[in-house]
Amino acid sequence: MFSENLKNLRKQNGFSQEELATRLHVVRQTISKWEKNLSVPDADTLIRLAEILDVSVSELLGASVENEKSADDIAIQLSRINEQLAIKNRRSRRIWKVVGITLAVIVLLYVFMMVFFSAQYISDTDQNKQQIITEETVIIDD
């Protein structure tokens, strides 16, 4: 896949993320996102990246593109990669949403139980106090 190829080729050529970013006129975080498979470069940047790393675009993408000079072919490959990233991101967001809702429900149940049991405890304590007062009153009256 592109992200793994980019990282390996960058290291083989002895570039840091910062150095590669400077050559491409992007920020280091952009290179990091590409290597973490969070985004992909546009077609023009991909061509420049391949030239800097001295490899073909198809080698960088990890797939064969018949006519590497054709921006349309490169755009199609990038489109496929972007679709895969979008699917991965949607799954990730769904998972985090489910985790968040689950945690919220647990917290709400905990708060509800605390309120319910503290009200029960207060009620029991009040009854015990009244019983003690009643018993003291009976003892004093005798």
TrEMBL record:
Q: Where is the HTH cro/C1-type domain?
A: 6-60
Q: Which GO terms describe its molecular function?
A: DNA binding
**Keywords, comma-separated and alphabetical:** DNA-binding, Membrane, Transmembrane, Transmembrane helix
Per UniProt, what is one Pfam family of this protein? Answer: HTH_3
Residue ranges spanning the membrane: these are 98-122
SMART domains noted in UniProt: HTH_XRE (SM00530)
What InterPro entries does the record tag this protein with?
A: Cro/C1-type_HTH, Lambda_DNA-bd_dom_sf
Which PANTHER family does this UniProt record tie to the protein?
Answer: TRACRIPTIONAL REGULATORY PROTEIN-RELATED-RELATED (PTHR46558), TRANSCRIPTIONAL REGULATOR (PTHR46558:SF3)
Give the matching PROSITE patterns.
HTH_CROC1 (PS50943)
Record protein name field = Putative transcriptional regulator
Xref: SUPFAM superfamilies: lambda repressor-like DNA-binding domains
